[in-house]
Amino acid sequence: MQQANQACRDITNEQSFEAAINIFADVPCAVCKRSLYPQQRSNLRANMYSILLPEELVALGTITTCSRCSNNIRKRKIPTTAYWNKMMPAEVPPELVNLTSVEERFLSRIVPFLKIVKLNNRFSQNWCKGQVILFAKDVVEIAEQLPLTPNQAGLVLVVESLENLSCSKEFVVDMQRLNRALTWLISNNHLYSDVQVHFETTLNIPHIL
Ligand SMILES: [Zn+2]
Question: A Pfam family in this protein (predicted)?
Answer without folding.
Answer: DUF6570
